[in-house]
Amino acid sequence: MTPHLRLLLTKTLLSLALAVAAFGVRADPAGVPPANDWAALNTAQKRVLLPFEAQWNSLDADARAKLLRGADRWIEMDDSARRAAAQRFTQWQNLPADTRQQLRQRYRQFKQLPPAQQERMRRAFGRYQTLPAGERAQLRQRFEAMTPAERRAFNAGMRAADERRNPPALRHLPAAEREATFRMMESLSAAERAAFWQRMQPLSRPEKESLRQRLLAMSPEQRRDFLLDPER
After folding, report:
1. How confident is the model at residue 163 (pLDDT cuts 50, 70, 90)?
2. Which residue, 53, 106, 196, 221, has fewest beta-carbon neighbours within 10 Å?
3. Would the pTM of this model clear 0.90, i.e. be above it?
């Protein structure tokens, strides 16, 4: 670890959990005991948390847990990920205090949502992140200019679009296969789609998976002939 990164870590670890939450970095690795005393930490944790050694045993359990989560996440990162985390933290620190408070409140509200809704929001954010910077800025400006009613309608539309892209029948698939299957389904005509679901309905789970794989391997013309031919 370079001196610069060590100094940055020393300054920021106490609030790292909030910062990484606000900017989308995982901060929940499993296996962090709620109240380890200093002697129970492993060597890597002690190295990262050295600035807090003197007061460690006097910190409350919540503060220790947050520091340990931040330290464990830092240990897992390579140098590139550490630089990215440092940049995100600098961005966080440069935000006005009232903006940081709003983000904390939004994060608390997000954690209270049902898991399925949290997952939908993560997927939507992932798609948003793939847009060019100019498009992201335009979307932010449009959203910020909306009235509360318009925002509710926008969010409802986003949920509907996500449900369409991720129907329950496809959610067990890995992301890449789910996307390929979605694109295939989008390419089907209404009659072909109806025939697809009619063929799928009586099948067992393994049989459905076999049929899906067969259809993916076909050309559009082969899929049309297969789906619309009642003898096949």
Report:
1. low
2. 221
3. no
